[in-house]
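Bump. Still looking for Transporter substrate-binding protein structure tokens.
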Amino acid sequence: MRKLRGRLALAVATTAVMSACSYSDTKVPEYKEPEAAKPSPAACTTTDDDLRSYDPSRDGGAAVSRIRKAGVLKVGVSGDTLLLGSRNPTTNKIEGFDITIAQRIADELGVDLQTRVITADDRIKLLQSHEIDLVARNMTINCDRWSKIAFSAEYYRAGQKVLVRSNKAYGGPEDLNGLRVCAPKGTTSLVNVQDQADKAGVKITLNPANNHTGCLVKFQQGQVDAITGDDTVLAGLVAQDKLYAKVPEQAAFSREPYGIGANSDDKDLVQFVNAVLEEMRSDGSWQQAYDRWLRASLDDVDPAPFRPAYDR
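Sorry for the wait, here they are.
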């Protein structure tokens, strides 16, 4: 009992000493995401020649045989780009304009479609490693990517624009000054918007995210002031946040010709894809897909200014 009283007295004394001392709360510095490095400009300049693909053909070859033998076409897609490729919360299925095209290719091959949600930064390396057969993920055809992978002929022509808050005026790159701008890592959007800011003589802070949903979250939390990307993608973001987000009337500052990506060795698969795309344009199913997924949100955009080019 005497030993217990001693312990209690020591505890009380220690508490008294601590109370008498003056302690200030330790201040933890607020975390700030480091500013992204300025993206490097492309090593080449994309011309109309770079939009040429291989002549359409259903003859097939090693790649087509491989896929038919496996019974499945593995396609990398977006899971968060509303209208193009996103998960329907009701059905839990990925759907959109790009998915419709991927499904048609699988149907024509006579195999099942297996979609794999990937980031923009993953597209090329997953094709090069043959972990996937194709990429149908609003992927822009350009000369730099042609040196690493192969592309189908152009199947849609988008243009890069800027999304801002609904109470902010925006008319062009000169209005970017001082803004924190988001675009997904590994996209041409980052390079393009930095180039436009430099030409306009204004300063921007690039704050990229892993995908467009990440950009929208940053936008809604006030971490960024604007999101840049293809008009198709931005239309999907506005559809998710009509109260605070808008894409003001503006001229697109780039052309974004979409192509289906493939491994460079799979020329016969690219030719097969081109044959399917030609059929979709001629039988009206391409137009039906556009009308279903994109027309309502892009009513001011001509859906057919592009012309597929071949003879690569």
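The two ends are 95 Å apart (CA to CA).

Edit: fixed formatting.
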